[in-house]
Amino acid sequence: MRLAIFASGGGSNAEALMAMAITRGTPYDVVLCITNRTDAGVIERAGRYDVPVEVLTAEQIASGPAMLDVLKRYDVEAIALAGYLKMIPVEVVQAFRHRILNIHPALLPSFGGHGMYGLNVHRAVVDSGVRWSGVTVHLVDEGYDTGPIVLQEVVPVEPDDSPEVLAARVLRTEHMIYTTAVRLLAEGRLKVDGRKVRVLERD
Ligand code: GRF
Fold first, then answer.
1. How far is the C-alpha of 182 from the C-alpha of 27, rounded, in Å?
2. Ligand 1 atom, smallest distance to 102 CA
3. Residue 36's Cα: distance from chain center in Å?
4. For the segment 114-131, what is each residue's pLDDT rounded down to a tens digit?
């Protein structure tokens, strides 16, 4: 499966996906890294894996047809959002229905939605007093963090956690769960039935 990764920031999840892609038997290749920022850390990381990078123009970020042109040029079959902070145009969501994954550093549907990204999420989790946070990988639909859930994993919140300490603990789990989810998509093992995603056994 030809995967494009979209990232706006440091790109540690992108790197976890690229590192997995070059290990033997992985059912996907990372054929493109897309970012909206010229200073994104993911650019340097992609270079280390010989993955081409496209820095999108304002038009390519906002216009579905323009973004689809970029994806077509690389024969992209699926997309993994990894800290991409822009909305995906609706035409792209429709063209790649059930083929776009996003990772969110909390247990959706809590602590998600507009403005809930980066440390904002972990600050809200710590302030709320919940004992458990976690990671959610979901399919992308037309909303913010609203698509069907593919995988979740819990991560404990310790009494004295700062948002930064919790973020680091959650990030370690993100790297594991995201590679697993992308593999499942590549193996055709995600069966979507409305809001529910069933993970099929290996044949
Ligand atoms: C991760 O916490 C991811 O869940 C969120 O943004 C962060 C990106 O981190 N959507 P990185 O750029 O992958 O290191």
1. 9
2. 10
3. 15
4. 899 999 999 999 999 999
